[in-house]
Each structure stands twice: as structure tokens, then as C-alpha cells.
Amino acid sequence: MNSRVAVLGAGMVGVATALELQRLGAQVTLIDRRDPGQETSYGNAGVIARSSLMPFNHPDLWKSLPTLLRNNTASLRYNTAFMLRNLGWGLSYLRHATHSAFEETTTALDALIRLSTAEHQRLLAEVGESRRLRDNGWLFLYRSQAAFDGGQLGRATMDHFGVRTQVLDTPALHALEPVLRPSVFTKALWIQDTYSVDSPGQVTAAYARAFAARGGIVSTRQLHTLQRNGEGWDVLDDSGQASYFDQVVVALGPWSKQFMGRLGIRVPMAFERGYHMHYAADSASPARLQRPVYDTGGAYVLSPMEQGLRLSTGVELNDCEAAPHPVQLELAEAAARQALPLGARLEAAPWMGSRPTLPDCRPIIGAMPGRRNLWLAFGHQHVGFSTGTGTAKLLGALMSGQPAPIDAHAFRAERFL
């Protein structure tokens, strides 16, 4: 690829894409309003899990929909005005909660996650950050037998794709994670085909440093729009400055919708906002959490991080830039304190981020129809950090005309654009 390429967005997807295009020979400039890894890619649970092949709009969604629509659960809250403005997205999301769409999505995401896991392992070794990677899996925790039985579709799907799991009763769970109170959880599922990191933001930043050390340009400025210039594009920032590139990749995560809108392109994207807070470990407890855990009843993920124990919440459907409303964090914290000894909060205010979600819970990876030399990589919902490296590998092959490492059809932009 002997061309000048701008990658817009310095989250995991954008940084990994910049690294891959650089490896293929392109002259790459990575552009974002903040330093790499400081937005959505900073705040996730740091899990690289094959179990993430399960979309949220799976066929069993219909059973829980009446409860979710009450708008009072820890797993889902929504802004009514936002949902009315995005009714088309919501109806399309529900239309994809079918067995046929589920089969296509799980097959596509499984391939992308497997590719991404291998790429993360390679890149972490290359940049000298393998110490951040844990390979001891993660746990789905169930507070009742009925809750465990309700997860049968997920277990069957993981079995179908060969994901290694082990069902644990209360004594086995306590032996694996002594810090968890045995009276809280009846069953657990240990998903062994899972890696996790102790700081997703630092991993993203390390990849960006490697990109810069190899001659890539990292430019921090506020992007505005694109203008066609011959066969290529001018990238304009808010000051009016224009920079020419032969090709452009839009990897702006939740901000891709607004950016593409300035080009007259409507992206059917909603925002699954989430919050996190770091906590100290209880000094009186000799045990420490060894791996991320997902409390299915408490609707939170708790991950051991460099900064402390990171508690990540469920979904809030709202405008990307709306004011924080961290009621789910309060509920999640109360549930987590039932589950294990949790120390004090380590920050004054919770972090908030937005997960960019398309109606079929798959990202767009590929060319923008009708706009030559414009490429898209966004809409990764909950798996942007874990699948960013595979996205980069796939997009690099498409842009350079090489054979694709996995089937790209399920991720084509023509689904919606």
C-alpha cells in the first residue's frame, strides 16, 4: 500500500488499523481529538472473550423484553425521548432478534474474535506488554438455579462454537475465587477461552507508541468533515485546516454517526452508554479477585485492573453526549458489595463511555458504497477493544487487495448504508 492514509479515531479499532496499514506499507496519520486510548477504549472491562460472540438481541430477548421495558433494571435503562427519536433503530434491533440473524451474527463474531485474540497476543509481545495479559478466563455468576437455567441458549451457543467452559457449583466456585461470598451464588460458568488485560487504555496507548516509533504520525485535533479532492480526500479540522490523503478510514466509534452525518450519510447507530468506578480491595480480606466476573443478577462486570477493581455497569440507551445519570452504578455497587468485600471508591466521579451499536450487533468493516477510497470501521458495540485488532487485519486485507483472513460479508456497509 504505497499511499497516504488517514485513520480517524484513536481508540483500539483506529490504533490497530493504523498499525496494520503501516505494516502493509502505507504512510499513515492517526487523527483524534484526544490522545490514543483516552475515550471509549479506556473504560471497558478489558476482556477478550470468545463468549462475546453472543449478541444482546438474541432470540431469548423477547422473554425478558417486558421486564426491560419497565426501565427500572440494573441491566438496562433508557431515555424515552432518545428512544422515540431512534424508533427505527429500536425496531430494527428487535427485528434482528431472530434465529437466522443470530446464526449469522454469532458465526461472524466468533471468526472476528478468534482472529483478534491471536493479533492481540502478537502485538502485546511486539510492544513488550505481554505482562498485562491474563489467560485464566472469566466467570458468569448466577444467584439462582432459575437464572442459570435461563442462560441455556448462551451455553449451547458456546458449545456449538467450541468455546471451552466449565460449570461450577458453589464449592468449586469458592475454590477458584475465594474472595466471592459462597452464600450469594448458586452456580457459575467458567469461560476458559478468555483473556483479559489490566488496563485497556494503556494497551491501546502502547500500540499507538509502537505506531509512532515506526514512523507513523499521531495528530491531535478536532475533526470536522471530509471533502472530495480528486481521487482522494481532504480531512478538515475545526480550524478549517485541510490535509490531503489518498484514502481515509473512519473509526470514530460512537462519534462516527455524527461525522458521517456531515457527509450526508445516515448511520443507524444507537449508544449503549455505560459507567465504571474503581475500588480498593478490602484490606481485611486476604483473598483477591483473580479474573473478571460477570454477575448476571447484579448486572455488572468486576475486573482486576492496574487502577484497582473496576466495576462496569449495564446499558443506558441515551444520547452520546447527554449528561451522566449513573443510577446503574449505584445499583451495581450495592450488588457487588453483597458478592465480595469491596473497599472505598478511588475516584470522585464515575467514568462514562458510549458503546456504538448497530441494529444487528455487528460492526461495519469495509468500503463505503459510492465513496471511493473511503473506508469504515465502527459499530463494535461491547467488543471494540477485544475485536479491534481483527478488524484491522480484515480491513487491511480489503484495502490492499489481499485475501481476507475471515469472511467479510457479514460486516459489509451495504447492510445499512
UniProtKB/TrEMBL annotation:
GO terms for cellular component: cytoplasm. One of its GO terms (molecular function) is oxidoreductase activity. It holds the Pfam family DAO. Keywords: Oxidoreductase. Coiled coil: none annotated. Residues 4-397 form the FAD dependent oxidoreductase domain. InterPro entries: FAD-dep_OxRdtase (IPR006076), FAD/NAD-bd_sf (IPR036188). This is FAD-binding oxidoreductase.
